[in-house]
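Please, structure for the following, as tokens.
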Amino acid sequence: MHTTLRIVLLLLAAIPVACGGAPVDSSAGKGPGPSPSSSSGSNPNGPSVGAGSASGTSSGSDLDGSSVDDSSDRSDSSSSSGPGSSSGAALDAAPDSPATPACSFASGLNVAWVNFASDVPNPDLATFKTIFKNTYAAGGRIVRWWFHTNGTVTPGYMSDGTVEPIPQAHIDGVTSILDAAHAAGVAIDLSLWSFDMLQGGEGITAALRTKNQNLLTQDSIRQSYIQNYLTPLVTALKGHPGLYSYEIFNEPEGMTQYGWTAGNGGAQVDESYIQKSLNWFAAAIHSADPSALVTNGSQVFQYCSNVNGNKNFYSDAALRSAGGKEKGTLDFYEVHYYTSNGTSNSCFTHPASYWGLDKKVVMGEFYAATTDGISQDETYSYLYTNGYDGAWAWAYESDQPWPSMQVPMQDLYAAHPGVGACP
């Protein structure tokens, strides 16, 4: 992965987790309700995301990733606290070994797809390779990519509503994307599901939306996804150098009582079902691959921090209590921020330490644009120097597309070349 021999210094950093909290006003919240065509199914106040093929050019020069690790100039903002107490019964054994430590700073960007919800089984590898090449050349090393998204293509359901056994073509499709990423010197944050699974529109039939809802709320359906699809996938990808982490959900709060999907002609579930599903899926991933990193893309800090009277929905204790599985916790937090979320949720007006989190925190979505007084070119460097553990701007092909994040990533790499040692 074009790392240096000193990557060990980066890996000494503590592992991260995901976030949760009090209700956010959906009218002010972001929900990159990525829709392949129009505003159908997207949060009206969020970025309008369009699918399409990536541009194949880059104005950036190639940056050599094999430089010395300078992570020692940046204090680790996370503490290595032990697992929280849980009132839920532990239904599985504690992991035999911990997950691989997350990077000290994971610099990168969102794809988030080439073809919305349908990159697998036949990914457009030429376009992915261009994106990966441009990311690496700018000093980025992690690319966030959405897999099932809304469930219109994968995973697939049987007539009784249970999830179909994973086809080899799906494993091959994901593997080919990871192979291309590794060949380019980057790795993938593989985001499994998005709030889109309960959206209105997006080609989601009422029958499919009900099946997606049942996957979240019915233990037998959820278990069928784990047994028939998720575990075989994780087993097949175990140890792949092109895989950085698994992300269970993109902005799951959007499909709860705190979100917007019901108002967009879709459905919703109680947040407790999100917590339980996250706990079960994370436990399954950690069981199949104890070294795997697991995270969750929370909409805002209001849902993943206890500051200002909010509640962290995704702490170890909260997830274990909801689902009962000891291994079902996050390894690092991933949070999103847009100015529509309000400065009280801003990563550009608060250092990472402000949120009082017990694990690393990556900013998994934000615009590489002047935000809350921080200039466009300084966005990545600001997050680095203020204690965050990664930056993945939204998004390569939409809203603030490439090359909006190119110079910010290059400037960060030039000042702190150790970020090139991730992962």
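The mean pLDDT is 84. The two ends are 7 Å apart (CA to CA).
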